[in-house]
């Protein structure tokens, strides 16, 4: 493995935490630590396989960066899609020439998509069989990747799945070897397939998109050297086929680089469940002392980065106004389980179904622990439910509330994609409510007087412009190239800039964005943008009570 400046691999596989990646120099928050442009595996998720280019992994969507991308299927197997000839050629060279016949066979016999890990394994097996050097070095009999195979075997149910999936992949990838009469070679390949699947589970990363969810699987042997922490100092972004490792906070030379394999804001037992696939006990302080998001936030070195964000009041991050007395440690997991039982009720009628969700999370609301899961998930689901059922006006205060009361505590670093998506959600809802306000529709539909008054009094377009500039500002801190949300923000900014008669407002937002420390720009952001967002956010709990015909004790407590 070649040494890359800035980091080195240390440790021994299978001993303690095994190998790890260590910084050999300091990195600033947002800085790129290293990139992985030639992954061994980069596949779209099975459910996205008709809408994603199988080489560059661009996915088609209605709006945004790839809206105009038209995908064409491989004429051989009709199973993989490409956005153009360059991608088709590159994919053919990388892997598809070895798997196209296999996909044709699968299509004619099974007739449906293989699950993503099986497809990934089949790809590894055809390349192993062919003797592809990089694949042999990682997955071969003396391959570099950790497999944790003994730990997988110890879990009967999981091992059964591994065996089944391995047989399925081997059947298609190695048709001659898995004939009905077992041979020594077939047994060897079966063993190899099971080990390779354990390696895939241990070392691959889900490509997670805040909008689309799981969009694919990515495996690079060097990226696979990074250990997990629920208080990570780095994160991985994906730009098309390239994985990009970035610093989430300032990192010192000599620090171990750690990412989170899971959503680190989940409650402890859920995190442990998600991590069980990796077969280790996490001993980070969040796990050891069962610290909640507020406690982690208070000690985060990323707090000062929020001075240009929707939460510039750093004291609020350092001293959150929560009252834990009603929610002793350990009860959060119980609340989470209770919420799981009822969570889908939020989208259902009659209201009692939805109310059971809120009953489950009531202790967290009373303690003002808005950032502690499952409360943010319940609030986001309610926001979506309002949008889907025509209550877009009510979704806006909720989105403002989530972006100010939940996300800054959960993801303290303000350029994390989830934070930027939260700001973008406000922009999208505000643009929609502005349109309906202008057409007079709002006056007919929105019965909440205070909300209607705020919407009628604010300059939504200017606020949207400032919020988009905030996304561009924060997004640029951590992006080598435009991410989806950054591209979308720039695209929407162009639309706004093309509106006539807004020269003064536009000049103000630009002035602020060019120098957020400038007193005039700062006052504009405070008095126009933050005031509107905070005023809207302040209506969120009241709207929940009214719209859900709540007993107000649920949200506000009994005084
Ligand atoms: C992607 S690999 C990371 C590199 C690995 N340490 C190695 O030597 O290959 C994932 C595996 O590393 C180990 N690991 C990762 N994070 C860990 C942690 N915080 N504590 C203990 N083991 C960890 C677990 O065995 C896990 O299945």
UniProtKB/TrEMBL annotation:
Q: Where is the SET domain?
A: 5-262
Which SMART domains does the protein's record reference? SET (SM00317)
Q: Which keywords belong to this entry?
A: Metal-binding, Zinc, Zinc-finger
This protein's superkingdom? Eukaryota
- Membrane spanning stretches: none
> Is Cell membrane set as a keyword in this record?
no
Extract the GO molecular function terms from the UniProt entry: zinc ion binding
Q: Which residues form a coiled coil?
A: none
Gene3D superfamilies for this protein? 1.10.220.160, 6.10.140.2220, SET domain (2.170.270.10)
Is Zinc found in the keyword set? yes
Domain MYND-type positions: 53-100
The UniProt entry, under PROSITE patterns, shows: SET (PS50280), ZF_MYND_1 (PS01360), ZF_MYND_2 (PS50865)
UniProt name for this protein: Suppressor of anucleate metulae protein B
Q: Which organism was this protein described from? A: Podospora didyma
Lineage at the top is: Eukaryota, Fungi, Dikarya, Ascomycota, Pezizomycotina
């Amino acid at each position: 493995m070649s040494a890359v400046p800035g980091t080195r691999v240390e440790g021994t596989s299978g001993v303690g935490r095994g190998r790890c990646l260590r910084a050999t120099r300091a990195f600033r928050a947002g800085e790129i630590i290293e990139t992985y442009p030639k992954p061994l595996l980069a596949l779209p998720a099975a459910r996205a396989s008709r809408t994603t280019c199988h080489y560059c992994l661009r996915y088609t969507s209605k709006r945004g960066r790839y809206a105009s991308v038209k995908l064409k299927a491989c004429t051989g197997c009709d199973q993989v899609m490409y956005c153009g000839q360059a991608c088709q050629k590159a994919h053919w060279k990388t892997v598809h020439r070895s798997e196209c016949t296999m996909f044709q066979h699968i299509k004619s016999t099974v007739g449906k998509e293989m699950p993503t890990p099986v497809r990934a394994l089949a790809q590894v097996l055809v390349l192993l069989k062919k003797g592809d050097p990089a694949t042999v070095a990682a997955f071969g009999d003396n391959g570099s990747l950790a497999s944790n195979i003994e730990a997988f075997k110890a879990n009967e149910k999981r091992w059964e799945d591994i065996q089944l999936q391995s047989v399925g992949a081997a059947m298609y990838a190695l048709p001659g070897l898995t004939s009905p009469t077992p041979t020594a070679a077939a047994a060897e390949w079966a063993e190899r397939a099971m080990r390779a699947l354990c390696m895939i589970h241990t070392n691959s990363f889900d490509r997670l998109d805040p909008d689309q969810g799981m969009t694919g699987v990515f495996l690079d042997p060097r990226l696979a050297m990074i250990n997990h922490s629920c208080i990570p100092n780095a994160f991985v972004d994906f730009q098309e086929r390239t994985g990009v490792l970035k610093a989430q906070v300032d990192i010192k030379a000599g620090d171990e680089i750690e990412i989170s394999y899971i959503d680190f804001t989940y409650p402890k037992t859920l995190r442990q469940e998600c991590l069980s696939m990796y077969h280790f006990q996490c001993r980070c302080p969040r796990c050891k002392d069962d610290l909640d998001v507020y406690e982690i936030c208070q000690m985060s070195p990323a707090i000062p980065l929020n001075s240009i964000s929707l939460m510039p009041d750093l004291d609020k991050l350092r001293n959150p106004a929560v009252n834990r007395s009603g929610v002793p440690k350990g009860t959060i997991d119980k609340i989470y389980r209770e919420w799981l039982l009822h969570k889908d009720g939020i989208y259902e009628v009659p209201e009692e179904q939805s109310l059971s969700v809120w009953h489950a999370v009531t202790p967290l609301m009373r303690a003002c622990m808005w950032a502690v899961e499952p409360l943010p998930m319940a609030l986001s689901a309610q926001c979506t439910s309002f949008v889907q059922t025509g209550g877009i006006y009510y979704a806006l205060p909720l989105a403002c509330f989530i972006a100010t009361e939940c996300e800054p505590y959960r993801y303290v670093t303000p350029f994390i994609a989830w934070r930027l998506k939260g700001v973008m959600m406000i922009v999208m809802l505000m643009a929609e409510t502005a349109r309906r306000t202008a057409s007079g529709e709002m006056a007919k539909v929105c019965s909440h007087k205070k909300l209607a008054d705020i919407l009628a009094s604010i300059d939504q377009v200017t606020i949207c412009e400032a919020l988009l500039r905030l996304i561009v500002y924060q997004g640029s801190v951590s992006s080598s190239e435009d991410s989806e949300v950054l591209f979308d923000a720039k695209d929407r900014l162009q639309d706004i800039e093309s509106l006539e008669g807004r020269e003064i407002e536009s000049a103000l937002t630009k002035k602020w964005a060019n120098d957020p420390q400038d007193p005039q720009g700062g006052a504009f952001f405070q008095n126009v943008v933050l005031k509107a967002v905070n005023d809207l956010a302040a209506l969120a709990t009241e709207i929940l009570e009214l719209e859900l015909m709540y007993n107000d004790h649920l949200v506000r407590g009994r005084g």
